[in-house]
Structures are given as C-alpha cells and as structure tokens.
Amino acid sequence: MSLTMSRASIPMFVQYLTNLSSLLDLAEAHAASRKIDPAALLGARLYPDMFPLTGQVQFACDFAKGAAARLAGLPVPSYQDTEKTFAELRARIAKTLAFIESVDASLIAGSDQRAAQIHPRTA
Fold first, then answer.
1. Does domain 5-110 have CATH number 1.20.120.450?
2. Domain boundaries, given as residue ranges, for the chain
3. Most buried among 9, 14, 43, 123, by the most CB within 10 A?
C-alpha cells in the first residue's frame, strides 16, 4: 500500500482534532473540580501575543478544514468564530471532523502535483 496525500493528511487531522476534543474534556472537568470559571481557561493565553484557547481551537479547525479542502480542490468552508464555551468548541471540532472525513480521497489524489491557493486568515 503506497502513501497517498489523503492517507498522509486526513488521518492526521482526525487524530489531532480528536485529541484536542479530549483535552477540552479534561480542561472542562478540571475547571469544574477546582471551581474555576470556564471562561478563565477559555480566555487563557500561553504567551501575551498568542490567541486564547478559544482562538487556538478555532485556528486548529480552520487549518484542518482548509488543508483538506485545498488538497481536494474544494471551496474552504467558512465558520464564524463565535464559540465561547467548551461545548461550542467541541461542536466546532465535530463539524470540522465531519467535513474532513467527507472529503473523497479521489479528489485529493494527485494534489501533490497541483498548486494550492492559500489566502491569509482574515479574522
């Protein structure tokens, strides 16, 4: 079985988004057990010039759906960055997983021979 662009990308996106969703579960449980306002964790930054946790999750989803769409030559789905809770972030991850898992591997085939158009994030 040879390595294809689909096998080199989609399973990796699925794995890291699934792991990210599990990390959100752990963070939410930690906040509940320590009686920490969830908004404090969701708004936390590891460094002042970084996105807060909500932005990091949004960006991770944007990266995965954007890469899958561009590899397949499909339009990149646009999601509003309105998530404010752990549940909303997990829903965004689930929506992203549903999209990337729906991308037909045959559309990705040969994408290593095509140029991909990448536009900067505008939000």
1. yes
2. 5-110
3. 9
- Which structure tokens are listed for 30? 């930690």
Neighbours of 97 (CB within 10 A): 18
- CA distance linking residue 111 with residue 55, whole number of Å: 29
pTM of the model: 0.89
Residue 77: what residue type? P
Q: Give 20's pLDDT tier (boundaries 50, 70, 90).
A: very high
CB-side neighbour CA atoms (13 Å) of 94 = 8
pLDDT over 60 (residue 123): no
Measured between alpha carbons, how far is 21 from 87 in angstroms, rounded to an integer? Answer: 10
